Every structure is written in C-alpha cells, then in structure tokens.
Amino acid sequence: MQDQIHRLPKVELHSHLEGTIRPALAKEIATRNNITLDPNLFQVNGSYAWSDFPSFLKAYDSVSSCLKSGKDYQDITYEYLKDCAKENVVYAETFISPDHAAECGISYDDMISGIASGIDDAERDFGIIGRIIVTCVRHLGPTQGLNVVHTMVDNPHPYVVGFGMGGDENAYTLEEFADVYKIAKKAGYKCTVHAGEICGPESVWDAIKYLPISRIGHGVNCIKDKKLMGELQQRNIHLEICPGSNLSLSIFPDWNSHPLPSIMRKSISISLNSDDPPFFNTTVGQEYHDSAKHFNLGIEDLKQISEMAMKASFIDSKIKSRLIDKIQNFQS
Questions:
Q1: pLDDT for position 332
Q2: Interatomic CA distance for residues 58 and 62, integer angstroms
Q3: For 74, 101, 219, 258, which has the most beta carbons within 10 A of its beta carbon?
Q4: Distance CA 224, CA 205 (A)
Q5: CB atoms within 10 A of CB 304
Q6: Range of 84's domain?
C-alpha cells in the first residue's frame, strides 16, 4: 500500500509558507542576506528546536526573519512546491503573511511577485499547481486585519485565491474581525479561518456565526460538541486537518486520541495537511502514510480525502474540475 499512497494524487490546503522553510534553506538564505540565525534555533541533528506552543511561535518568527526580498520568497515557494511534487501533490494552497513580510522590510508587491515566480517555476518544472491565501494575524488585532485585507483587495493577483487568519486563538474575538472578512467576501475571495485548534468548539461556533467562511483551519475540537459536528456537515464546512501538527503541539496526546476517524464518520469534509512541515517533522505525503497506519484508512479512504480537499479548494472551477477528474481516475 505504500506505493499506492505515494502514487495517489494529493492536495494540500493548509500550510504556512514561512513555516515550510527547511533548516538548510533557512541557513542558506540567512547567509545570502548577511543575517546570523540564533544557534539555539537548531537541535544537534539540525532540525528546529522548540518545546511548546510559545517556543514554536518564537522559532517560527526567528526563521521568518531571514527573509529580506522577493527573491527569498520565490526560493522558499519553489522548494516547498518541489518537495510536494515529489510526493505527488498535484495542488497546494499556502498561507502567506504580509505582516511577517513587512516586518522583514519586504513590500506586499515584492512578496507576491516573488511567490508567483516560485509558483510558475514549480509548475513548469514539476507540473504542480500552487495558489496563495493571504492571511492576517489575529493577535495583531482587527485594525491591522483591515490594513491587510485592503492591501489584498487593492492589489489583486490571479494567484491569490482566498483570505484567512492565523495567530493566537485567544486574542480578540472573531466577531471583531467580521468587517475584515466582509471586505474579502465582497471582493469575491473565498475565506477560511483558524479555529478549534488551541481553543474549544465555541471558537468554531463563532467562526461559522460571524465570518463568511467555507473552511476552517484545524477545527479538530469540534469533536467535543455533537451539535457542532452536525452543523459543520449540514453547512458543508470543510476542516483543514493537520494530525502531525496536532500531536507535535500536544493538542492530542497520541494517534489513538486524535478525532479524525470520528470526524470522517460524521461525513464532514476534511483534508490532510502538513501545517509547518519541517517544524513538525512531517510532509503532506507523511500525513497520508501516518493516517493510513494509525487510523486504519485504506487507499479508497485516502482517495476520498484528496477529492474532498480538491472540491474545497479555492481555485477556479476549470482547474478544479480537471484535478478532481485526475484524482477520481486514479487506479490503485
């Protein structure tokens, strides 16, 4: 079955671009930009060093600080999509943070043009299709969220297909971001939001009550509320699930306690995603292999997950239809 999983066309809907930078690439870009990375950022074996959610966020920000130009964004996009293509990922959406870029002195236009070049190069070289979801940062507040969404809407790019929000789930309320999301929706962008990862089911309820979303990042704590699970299924709200990330961050203690099988049994649309792959020692392909092993999923289950993910993607209907056909025509 290992070979079948490898050959299966896969889809990723939930990764943070700055969080896809492998340690070797971070060091290479830092050297190019004359930046000295904190040696404590790395373990003896070369992987990123962190121990809990706050230290993970600190490590994430430290890695992001090596970026100084659109060329850097081009390189990290290309390398991420190259890694995905090796595992037969046919389509990947990645979250980008204009706030992170601005902190590094990179303009929105330079960031977008660099990422777009990386997407073009990867499609030319590997056949993978990539697209962008612009995100604001929750703990920076709704006023900064308005700045981000206005920048996105005022500077449209064909590869920007959606709007979302990450950051600290405990900061502010989702109702306070309603106006931010209304601007994105009015401009024709589909929306997602991180909820139900660190916080409980009430955060998912708030997401579907106040925001015009069709997807939720993580959402795994919906398992604590049967009524909520029924609501997600009825509204066809898709959950971007990242099991490896959940276990690394101790959202759940082990594979046996992860709710993905229970969520699937409720006929809720889901995808399998890597989130921040080098930080969590995972990849999209690894998530498919681990889910098969620990959740006892067969190749047809995984094929269904790929198809659900593609249907929930934010890309235009023509490409979406073509890639859905590719997944459906896969012969195990």
A1: 78
A2: 6
A3: 219
A4: 12
A5: 16
A6: 2-328
CATH of the domain at 69: 3.20.20.140
* Marked catalytic residue, from 169, 197, 240, 307: 197
Return d(Cα 64, Cα 100) in angstroms, integer: 7
Q: What is the dihedral of CA 2, 270, 287, 135, to 10 degrees?
A: 140
Identify whether the C-beta of residue 226 lies closer than 8 Å to the C-beta of residue 203. Answer: no
47 pairs with which residues across the strands?
Answer: none
| Helix pair angle (201-210, 226-235), 10° resolution | 30
Say if residue 201's pLDDT is above 90. yes
Residues 6+ apart with CB under 8 A from 6: 87, 88, 285
Which positions ≥6 away from 120 have C-beta within 8 Å? none
Q: Which residue in 240, 235, 229, 230 sits closest to 211, CA to CA?
A: 235
Task: Look at strands 238-241 and 270-272 and give their pairing.
Answer: parallel
Task: Please tell me the number of Cα atoms within 13 Å of 219 on its side-chain side.
Answer: 33
Task: Report pTM.
Answer: 0.96
- The answer to whether the beta carbons of residues 287 and 255 sit under 8 Å apart is no
Q: Locate tokens 């490409």: which residue? A: 319
Query: What is the number of domains present in the chain?
Result: 1
Q: How far apart are CA 150 and CA 310, in angstroms?
A: 28
**Token representation of residue 132:** 């962008």
Are 172 and 142 within 8 A, CB to CB? yes
Torsion, Cα 38 40 43 46, to 10 degrees, reads: 10
103 is catalytic: no
Residues 6+ apart with CB under 8 A from 132: 93, 94, 96, 112, 115, 116, 119, 157, 159, 160, 161, 162
Residue 118 identity: G
Q: Are 278 and 47 in contact (CB under 8 A)?
A: yes
Beta strands in 21-156 (DSSP E): 89-96, 129-137
Q: Does residue 216 register a pLDDT over 90?
A: yes
- What is the rounded CA–CA span in Å between residue 10 and residue 87? 8
